[in-house]
Amino acid sequence: MNQTRRVCILGGQRIPFAKSFTTYAHKTNQELMTAALSALVQKFNLKGQRLGDVALGSVIKNSSDWNLARECVLGSGLDAHTPGYDVQRACGTSLETAWQIGLKIGAGQIDVGIAGGSDTNSDLPVMLPRRFGRLLLDARSQKSIGGKLRVFSGLRPHHLKLQFPGVVEPRTGLSMGQHCELMVKEWKISRESQDELSYVSHQNAAKAYAEGFYSDQVADYEGMKKDNLTRADTTREKLAKLKPAFDFTGAGTLTAGNSTPLTDGAAAVLLASENFAQSKNIPVLAYLKDVEVAAVDFVNGGEGLLMAPTIAVSRLLERNQMKLQDFEFYEIHEAFAGQVLCTLKAWESKDYCEKRIGRKDALGSLDRSKMNVKGGSVALGHPFAATGARIIMTLAK
């Protein structure tokens, strides 16, 4: 990141993650994000203080959320002179906000900032077709009643058909789960291995809660004190009984048990310079050193839609002259258990690393006992734009 000074991760706060259409069924993105932001402000005694910047994001937004970050800042208890802006990079949204705030701190532009994100499937922007909107605009431009009536005479039932957003890739028409099904078939990932990873994720998450690991990271909200998706009583046998959720041909292996559930929630992290941390007597948990992103050509190149991390991690390691094995802990987002296993298998493949990443050798294996040791997204949930911040605060602690 070519920093002139180190970027400190001081900690984070999130509200409990909830299965969509349950506890937060009638909450908006702004309400969820404001709750997490307010908890962070309270935790670090930031009420009434002006920060350098606040970057927040959401993947699925209503049009009324166009200025989400700034509105959340105004409701958080921070000084109203604190600026805020919106970011969106799909499931990496709050990783991106942390990167941007980190760059500003590292460059000496600001001393402290907040990064985060929220998402809710319970407050989906249900819309009417664009054709209906155009018809209304055409009618509005008419000056006479007769002109307006002539426009409305073209109104047809299909103009009023409600449209619900979905997590679908527009160019292929396939959902994320359907794309992951293609990946696990290509990489020959078994149903049993996916269920095993999910089982371990739930066990790790349940143990972390029992040990109090999340007690200073998850703020009470709407009567909830913890995520309502973690299943301490999940067994391999229960997971094995679940039916495929995306491929119904008999060859499908992705189920509701080894896939991330639709989740509502929000999370935020506090980043600062060392001078700020020292002046406020706040311990530094970790430092944000470097970041990398990548993309794949899943339309023309035959690459798996969710395989970009294989490339990004390789570039990151090469730039920092490190190996995949040089870490004590690994946090890998479990969009699907199968997606994680495809990534791990790709890093072990010399052929893949040569052809797809441009490396001379494979990255190799990592110690799975060091991965997602406090539970992953399959067990904790995945509010799209909040997951990055959740990962940062967990890994820093």
How are the SSEs placed, and which strands pair?
Elements: E1 8-14, E2 18-19, H1 29-43, E3 53-57, H2 68-74, E4 84-87, H3 93-106, E5 112-119, H4 130-141, H5 145-152, H6 176-186, H7 191-210, H8 236-240, E6 263-272, H9 274-279, E7 286-287, H10 308-319, H11 337-348, H12 350-357, H13 377-380, H14 387-396
Parallel strand pairs: 3-4, 3-5
Antiparallel strand pairs: 1-6, 1-7, 2-6, 5-6
Helix pairs in contact: 1-2, 3-14, 4-5, 6-11
Number of discrete helical segments: 14
End-to-end Cα distance: 22 Å
Give the overall shape. Answer: globular
Level of helix content?
A: 25-40%
Mean pLDDT metric: 96
Question: What's the count of strands?
Answer: 7
Largest sheet: 7 strands, mixed
Q: Which structural category fits the helices and strands?
A: alpha/beta
Topology as a string of helices (H) and strands (E): EEHEHEHEHHHHHEHEHHHHH
Taking pLDDT < 50 over at least 5 consecutive residues as the criterion, the unreliable ranges are: none
